[in-house]
Amino acid sequence: MNSSADRSVEMTGKSTAAARERFEALCAPLKADLFRFLYWLCRDRSLAEDVMQETLLRAWKSLDSLSDEKAVRSWLLTIARRELARTFERKRIPTVDLDAANEADREAFATEDDHDVREMRRAIMQLDVIHREPLVLQVMLGYSTEEIAQQLQISLPAVLTRLHRARHALRKHMLGDAAGEGARE
Questions:
Q1: Chain centroid, CA 7 distance in Å
Q2: CA pair distance 108, 101, nearest whole angstrom
Q3: Which of 18, 87, 111, 129 is 20 to 30 Å from 154 at the Cα level?
Q4: In whole angstroms, what separates CA 121 from the centre of its chain?
Q5: Does residue 115 fall inside a structural domain?
Q6: Is residue 7 in a domain?
Q7: What share of the chain is helix, strand, coil (3-state, %, to 5)?
Q8: CA 159 to chain centre
């Protein structure tokens, strides 16, 4: 029978120290990118932090399944996407009454961001997830289209189409309907 003392001895063993070092070496440099990715997907800092912790916990538990250390970024982002999906499956996010929000003091919603930045963020968040996700992967995390295709498990033409539609929707939103029509000519 394993007591807590037996387990603590097992946890301090040489193999666990080596695993911890490997995990830190692989995952620590990617924490900022992981958080940025999660935040752009869910737009909630505390939820992104929670999902990031769950992601790192799952990554720690399944570290042995990572066979190619060059793929650690994709591996972590896949875990993060799935963990975020699990979060939304498990709990209902509280909603805000739109009428009450419109009547609320406008200054309560003010941020220090420039108007164009706020407008761009709002436009990005209004994109469908299938268009927003590849755009964030490319713009925020610097993924190539091939890496995005692997990450999302879709074809390269599908990635290119989604990126084109995302940019077209952003252009239309930021420059108005005339820009959307001008891009088609």
A1: 34
A2: 10
A3: 87
A4: 15
A5: yes
A6: no
A7: 80, 0, 20
A8: 17
End-of-domain residue from the set 94, 129, 161: 94
Summarize pLDDT for 90-129 with one digit per residue, the tens: 766 566 666 666 666 555 555 555 677 778 888 888 888 8
Of 94, 123, 155, which closes a domain?
94
The amino acid at residue 29 is P
Express each pLDDT in 146-164 by its tens digit. 989 998 999 999 999 999 9
C-alpha 174: how far from chain center: 23
Distance (Å, rounded) from C-alpha 115 to C-alpha 120? 9
- Do residues 81 and 141 make contact, with C-beta atoms less than 8 angstroms apart? no
**Which two three-digit tokens encode residue 178?**
């005339």
Residues, the chain, total? 185
Q: Are residues 72 and 104 in the same domain?
A: no
Residue pair 60/23 in contact by the 8 Å Cβ criterion: yes
Number of H helices, E strands in the chain: 11, 0
CA–CA dist 142, 147 (Å, integer): 10
Same domain for 84 and 39: yes
159 in Cβ contact with 134 (< 8 Å): yes
Residue 136 CB contacts under 8 Å (≥ 6 apart), including other chains = 37, 40, 41, 124
- What is the C-alpha R_g of the chain? 21
Q: Report if residue 3 sits inside a domain.
A: no
